[in-house]
Here is the input.
Amino acid sequence: MNQTQLWTPAPEVSAQLSNPQNFSRAVKAPSASTKALSTVGIIALALLVYNLVNTITSLNKNGLSSKYFVDMFFTVESYSGSVNPILVLQVWGPILAIPLIVVLLIISLSTKDARARKVFEAYQSGGYIAVANTLPLAVVSGRVSYTPLVLLSPLADANLSADWYINQVKHIEGLTSKEKKILAKDFGRQVKSAAKLPEMRTVFQHAPAEMFLTFVAATKEQSRLYVVLPTQSGRTALPVKVQSLG
Here is the structure.
């Protein structure tokens, strides 16, 4: 396999990402407020759906008409007549989450340009584009299944790294199920630190220098390209949405 196919991004991608507008479309700057917005929204929606299902189920079970829907939907008392904390959360959680969602949305939108500018400046001051190559292994952390990705620094020996990667893929594919589980556990210990791009040597002692490891959830669309950015603690990687470049 030609090492250029493994590690080198298309020249036109590099040219397009040199433009700040193109960069901001293709690379989404991380945002704590956006993550919080997503989390709160998902929880609120789950509570709302759960309450709707319970309300409809209770109406059908008790043979009540739809005119009792609102009363049943806002019921927070148990059959004994006492206030049920779970029902309170189920009923009022989504409603109380609305102002929080609005605040988080305003913060996310108002800081979007500044975050994009900061990421682009980091890219220009020492970042680079890296091609992501997968390893044929399912890594489970918590309840999420991940695929390990190999990223290479421009300072690495591309040919040596290509040979190592190709041989490692063959090695993993030849492992027994038990051996793969053991290896997956070794990789799993790195999932929490993946944002800082640990070196591949944390798992494979004899891996080439300047080869880094990250993960993508198996349920997410995998990006073929990443931008690697310098940070105060080392480095981080953000996926590139190539389709956004046109």
The first helix runs from residue 3 to 7. The radius of gyration is 24 Å. The chain has a mean pLDDT of 90. The CA atoms of residues 196 and 236 lie 5 Å apart.
